[in-house]
Amino acid sequence: MSECPHVRKLPHPEPAPLSETCPECLAIGSHPVQLRLCLVCGHVGCCDSSPHQHAGAHFQETGHAVMRSFEPGAVWRWCFVDGSIV
To answer: CB of 40 within 8 A of CB of 10?
Structure first.
């Protein structure tokens, strides 16, 4: 894992999750796959393996570049701008 400039700009401590699952999936009756937590604002969204890709849509709408897995036991982070694990 490498450091990127977007990670250095993240709030500390990281934001609390705004929900337990992807609210956009719940609203449309879809099942979220592999949840992601926005490390800027705490939005929880489904990953790019989900039919609706709400975590990626959140980045496109907000510019919040870094998220982490919101799955139990997973610790990695992803930067949408750099397109890499950070």
So the answer is: yes
